[in-house]
Amino acid sequence: KMAAGEAAGRYRSTMSKSKDPSGLLISVIRTLSTSDDVEDRETEKSRLEEAYEKCDRDLDELIVQHYTELTTAIRTYQSITERITNSRNKIKQVKENLLSCKMLLHCKRDELRKLWIEGIEHKHVLNLLDEIENIKQVPQKLEQCMASKHYLNATDMLVSAVDSLEGPLLQVEGLSDLRLELHSKKMNMHLVLIDELHRHLYIKSTNRVGQRNKEKGRISSLVKDASSVPLMDVTNLSTPRKFLETSQFSTPGSSSMRETSLLEIKEDMELDPEENSTVFMGILIKGLAKLKKIPETVKAIQDRLEQELKQIVKRSTTQVADNGYQRGENLSQENQPR
């Protein structure tokens, strides 16, 4: 018993010194290796066995005393172990699902990109179809604008249609006839505008002067001596030069201001375009600029200048002669041969 007690005491002292179980094994091996007699070894062995038996008894007693707590701890440990295992399995499943979702999202992204590109293509096709539908109505609208003499709107419409037909719609074979027709109209449009410009520049303006002269002639024949021939008053006549040099510009004669004034000219579709002759001529010039036919216009004006001025002299002479003849008739009826 004393040997067993000593062995147990040595076991406890060794375990208290080091919590590593290998320390006890090393101590026993050292003891057995230092003993010379077999009996000492057997004695050491019996001491160890007694010490282990005592430990087992103590352990059994502790287990009996703390059975409930031990059972609860074991169950709790099992539950925790099961939860950890389940969590690991779930995390593994989630990782697999995430990889699957990633692959599916890549596929969906490609499909969405394809659908987005198709949507843009369809939208572009619809825009082209709308543009084609509008261009098909251009000849009819152009004829209406030309008939009502809204030349600026007609020019804008024609230039825009030709640009579209020779640009984005160039490959549309079904529009070839319309393309040729509108291109021909565009090539000849400036001739109409130049004729209108000459009519207002030389004929319309002088007609107004002649009309004013006739009215003054009637008044003078009633209140003044018939022999006095009224002079033409052209001081208040609006001419293109006066239009460009009016007080509406801060700097008279400034080219930049002239350009701005031309850009500000707009065409009112509700009003008579020829009501204001000066504005109408500005609209004609703006239309010719959009057609890029200003050089041809200048050349035409220069070529026809002498002819038109001769026509003005001829018309004015005829008007003066007609007025004089009418006054002579009136005077002869009043018995005033003078």
From TrEMBL:
Keyword Protein transport assigned to the entry: answer is: yes
Give the record's GO CC terms: exocyst; growth cone membrane; synapse
Domain annotation Exocyst complex component Sec8 N-terminal: ranges: 45-144
Specify the domain of life of the species encoding this protein.
Eukaryota
Q: Where is this region: Disordered?
A: 1-21, 316-338
- Residues annotated as coiled-coil are 38-97
Which GO terms are recorded in the biological process aspect for this UniProt protein?
chemical synaptic transmission; Golgi to plasma membrane transport; protein targeting to membrane; protein transport; vesicle docking involved in exocytosis; vesicle tethering involved in exocytosis
Q: What protein family is recorded? A: Belongs to the SEC8 family.
What's the stated role of this polypeptide? Answer: Component of the exocyst complex involved in the docking of exocytic vesicles with fusion sites on the plasma membrane.
Please give the name of this protein.
Answer: Exocyst complex component Sec8
Source organism per UniProt: Smutsornis africanus
Underlying gene = Exoc4
